[in-house]
Structures are given as structure tokens and as C-alpha cells.
Amino acid sequence: MAHQSPSFATPIIAPQYCAPGPRPFELIITKERGRGDNFTVTEMNGNIIFTVKSSLVTIVTPRQHLFLYDAHGNPIVHLRRALLAANDSWKAFRGKSTESRDLIFTRKRSSLFQLRTEFNVFLANNTSEVCDFRIKATWLGHSWDVYIGHSDIVVAQINKKLGTIFSREKYMVTMLPNIDYAFVVALIVTLES
Predict the structure, then answer these.
(1) What is the three-class DSSP state of 105?
(2) Within its chain, how far is the Cα of 121 from the centroid?
(3) I want to staple 118 with a disulfide (CB 3.0 to 4.6 A). Which of 41, 93, 110, 141 is the partner?
């Protein structure tokens, strides 16, 4: 990954989550075993910066919900997925909200039939049909790249390390400086939930 930061980088979730430069920023996302879709997000030195907790899906609420919390337990993002949506769409809202005024982004499959999994991400203020970000899987599906729109500019790379009976699945994430890492983490957990 290039060590050059895009000049247009702006906070998506919040400015404090924009990784400082000049080097790429790295995180480890660990999927908790036997606890639904719960994750722990740490810096390379082991400091916890986020946790992700899932809620139960019921007949009354036929949606999947994930909540991204900061290290102090404050809710940052509410991710909501309609289980019956054909395009595998997720919506991200600020805090625990589901109000349209608190929408941050929508992530959906770029097409129904794909050789390689690809998702388009539209920020809340985007009224066009052109995506703001794109997530594309490798041929084997164990890693993804996050691109700016339909450009070739990769802002984050995600590599999945499969777990064993003794270890949990991990995602090694590398992002360019000034990229909102809370946003990238929110995208990643929707890929595996």
C-alpha cells in the first residue's frame, strides 16, 4: 500500500478516528468465538479501541443489528441489516439511532451476480448513483480492498486470518493516514456478519 495520504480525506464518523500520518495505520479485529457477531478491535500494541456487539434477531425485529462502541463503552455506530434484502444492504447510523437524519452510510452489493464479491458504499449526503467507496474481495475471498469510488485508489486493505479450534478469526487491517478507521471497522464487520 502506498504511503501517500489522499488529500481529500475527511472524517466520516468523527475527526478523532482519522489515523494520523505519515505512515499507514494498522488494526487487528478479532471475532469472538461462540458469541454471535461480536468483535474486539485493537491497535497493534494490544490496546482496545473498539468493541462490536450484536443483538438478537427475532421474528418481531427481522433485522440484524451491530453496535460499534469506543473503548469507554460509548455507542458510536448502529449498523442495521434487513435480513430479507436481496442486495445484502446495511445502513449505519450515529450512536444507537435509526433516524434518517443520523444516517452515516449505506453499504450494498454492487450486483446480484458476482464472480468476486463487491460492495458499494454511499455516504448519507450522496444523492447520485455513483458510490463514494467500493469494497472488493480477492479471488479467494480472504481479503478485501477498500477503494475510493470507482478509482484505483486503495485506502484500506483487510486480510482475514482463519481461526482454528485454539484461535479466533482475525482481520489484519492497514489504512492510509487520515482515513477514518471507525468507518473502515464498521465496513469490515458488515462483511462477516
Answers:
(1) strand
(2) 10
(3) 110
